């Protein structure tokens, strides 16, 4: 029985290490009435090589991972099929760079609202991890969040 318990503990530890993506400083830009799109921003860090492959939120009809990049002197935004999360390196999703785009909003995202965002991350072994993020909405000019805000839960 003891061997079974030890084996189970080792298995659970291995599963926990599998992708182990952490989310810090998540927030969503608040919108004005009739605005149909906004961005979600955060810092992602994976213990092992992985990639962000999709996102969704009940506040939006369409959710995509986007990048903003200079193209011929013009800043352009486009959806990307995935975003690499190199092992041990923080990847910033921020205004003007990579971000989660929330489109076809179902209503106004007001300053102070909590916006649920589900991230799907795939490890190099093809296994997927779902991460539930609760991101506070704030105006773009609002000060940075205090430590502990924008928390997440792994599934």
UniProtKB/TrEMBL annotation:
InterPro entries: LpqE-like, Lxx211020-like, PCuAC_sf. Residues 1-19 form the signal peptide. Pfam families: PCuAC. It comes from the Bacteria. Coiled coil: none annotated. Keywords: Signal. SUPFAM superfamilies: DR1885-like metal-binding protein. Gene3D superfamilies: PCu(A)C copper chaperone (2.60.40.1890). PANTHER family: BLR7088 PROTEIN, COPPER CHAPERONE PCU(A)C. This is Copper chaperone PCu(A)C. It comes from Limnohabitans lacus. The lineage of its organism: Bacteria, Pseudomonadati, Pseudomonadota, Betaproteobacteria, Burkholderiales.
């Amino acid at each position: 029985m003891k061997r079974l318990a030890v084996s189970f503990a080792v298995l659970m530890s291995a599963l926990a290490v599998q992708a182990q993506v952490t989310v810090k400083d998540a927030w969503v830009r608040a919108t004005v009435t009739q605005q149909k799109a906004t961005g979600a921003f955060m810092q992602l860090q994976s213990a092992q090589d992985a990639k962000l492959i999709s996102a969704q939120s009940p506040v939006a009809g369409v959710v995509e991972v986007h990048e903003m990049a200079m193209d011929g002197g013009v800043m352009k935004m486009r959806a990307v099929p995935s975003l690499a999360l190199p092992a041990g390196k923080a990847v910033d999703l921020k205004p003007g760079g990579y971000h989660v785009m929330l489109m076809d909003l179902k209503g106004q995202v007001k300053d102070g609202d909590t916006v649920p965002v589900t991230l799907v991350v795939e490890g190099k072994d093809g296994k997927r991890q779902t991460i539930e993020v609760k991101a506070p909405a704030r105006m773009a000019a609002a000060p940075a969040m205090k430590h502990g805000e924008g928390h997440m839960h792994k599934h």
